[in-house]
Amino acid sequence: MTSEITLFVNPTAGRGRGARAAQPAASALRAAGFSVRTVLGENARDALTRARAAVAAGTGALVAVGGDGMAGLALQAVAGTDTPLGLVAVGTGNDFARSLGLPVRDPAAAGRVVAGALKEGRLRDIDLGRVGGTWFGTVLASGFDSRVNDRGNRMRWPTGRFKYDLAMLAELAAFKPFPYRITLDDGEVREIEATLVAVGNGSSYGGGMQICADADLTDGLFDITVVGACGRASLLRVFPQVYKGTHLSHPMVSTYRAAKVELAAEGITGYADGEPLGPLPLVAECVRGAVRVAGP
């Protein structure tokens, strides 16, 4: 592996934590003997173009500094290649970094872990989800939670995470289950009323909500969590259990495992790694060993 490492930085992540995190991360990599080149972009498209160019030019690793959005962008550059991915997670959710056992919101510590893994060859291949030409590392979300995202993204005020809390309250006020058609790779079609359907390559989304708590990044399968039809009161009772993953044993929750799944529901947007994929229907497939990561 070449000693030149590309630092892929989102300066706006975590209200400016991305810019501040770049320096200690770069220092940790240089202390381990690596030469560091920093890639910034004028926007997401430009940043991805630059990251892909670095991978094509043979960079020793791509180390993304930012949140889950930046990690997701980095995946588009390294998936399907032999270039290792490192993460210095300083965003709001940081679910992908957590799933890899990496430090979060501690750029110096994360930089040291990634640098040590690269230097010592502690690399492993993990699965990714893919919808069309888009890769994701954590969860494809649809249903109530994606409706909250839709509403929050339309709101100009307030800013920050609070607007999504308000969006959740608004969606709860108008809440009703959605008719879904779910087709797994066994070919059986399941037509159900569901509150949400989450397709997990990783176990969590939303900053630690263990929606697909038993997901394994190396088994070649998605864990699919279906929260069935329920009222507002039931949803509010079950919701806190998601943070510990204990919701999976609730009678209104069903789980499946599959390497491929098609989700169809009217008026529902799919989100993966917190970013919109587009309206359902969507087909997701789990690709075994699609990316090489540096970490514990």
UniProtKB/TrEMBL annotation:
Enzyme Commission code: 2.7.1.107
SUPFAM superfamilies attached to this UniProt entry: NAD kinase/diacylglycerol kinase-like
Keywords: ATP-binding, Kinase, Lipid biosynthesis, Lipid metabolism, Magnesium, Metal-binding, Nucleotide-binding, Phospholipid biosynthesis, Phospholipid metabolism, Transferase
Cofactor annotation: Mg(2+)
SMART domains per the UniProt record, alphabetical: DAGKc
GO molecular function: ATP-dependent diacylglycerol kinase activity
InterPro entries in the record: ATP-NAD_kinase_N (IPR017438), Diacylglycerol/lipid_kinase (IPR005218), Diacylglycerol_kinase_cat_dom (IPR001206), Lipid_Phosphate_FormReg (IPR050187), NAD/diacylglycerol_kinase_sf (IPR016064), YegS/DAGK_C (IPR045540)
Pfam family of the protein (one): DAGK_cat
Coiled-coil portions: none
Domain DAGKc: 1-135
Family from the record: Belongs to the diacylglycerol/lipid kinase family.
Name by which UniProt lists this protein: Diacylglycerol kinase
